[in-house]
Amino acid sequence: MNLPQFFSRHGRNSGQPRARGRRGTQLLPQARLAGPMPWVIAIMIALTTIAAAGALTLNNVANTVRAELAGGVTVQIVEAAPAERDRQARAALAALGALPGVVSAQRVPKEELDRLMEPWLGESLTGDEAIPVPALIDARLNGRATRERVEALRRDLHAVAPAAQVDAQASWLQPVISAVRSMQYLALALILLLIAATTAAVWLAARTALGVNRDTIEVVHHLGGTDSQIAWIFQRSVARDAVLGGIVGLAVGLIAIVALARQFAALDSGMLTGGGLTMLNWLLLALVPLAGVALATLTARLTVLAALRRML
């Protein structure tokens, strides 16, 4: 761009400068999607969108599992004799229905237990003829299944079912919830790394453009051009690249998210049923490219202003 000619036409106090001169040339070469900067930003936005979707999904899974299992209690009747096991299971089920604080209690059908064990033991090893399977009762309390409440429930059931074992469902799934939380923190750390990488890429591009146009910038300063006016040209150029890269990156990220969601939906896992993205989650994902554009623009402006103060 012919900056001396530009400032002679528009003056020192004409506001923000335009990025084009008479011949349409520019201070920063704009190759649109053929240049490296839009592609770099597109890759960063796509990865950030996928990482953010993963963090939101994991957060939904952890919250759903914790809410569903907060008051859940599993009662096992560990008895080898089928008749005695069935008697104690019926007695424990009746006792649970009469205890205060128990919202619901139902026995898990034996057919369902066999179906759950068949992938691990095989069809020939299911059933009492091969391996005695404890009777299971799924109960739900009207509040959190604390250790004190579980111990009190165990004492009440031992009076009618000595072979009963009571466990809070949240306790044996706590390692799974902890692993989910760890993966969520890993996704957040990845997002921070991508933000840092994007900032570094914009900083490097702005510094390179300043070095290439150093002589022209010095002439502009001698003609009365301000640092803010020069920074605006760089800022708008980077903003255009960021907008183009953000649109492409968001599109690629959303396609990857939908493809991954279909793959996980095909697993038909109970834990993943509560991990779907909500409307608020989708709105947050839509803000990722906007945040990327704002970050790139601000980084370019601050980089140029800081470099100009040291340069001249």
TrEMBL record:
The chain crosses the membrane at residues 37-58, 185-206, 242-261, 282-308. One of its GO terms (biological process) is cell division. It comes from Caenibius tardaugens NBRC 16725. It comes from the Bacteria. The keyword Ion transport does not apply. Keywords: Cell cycle, Cell division, Membrane, Transmembrane, Transmembrane helix. GO terms for cellular component: cell division site; membrane. InterPro entries: FtsX. This is Putative cell division protein. Residues 1-25 are annotated as: Disordered.
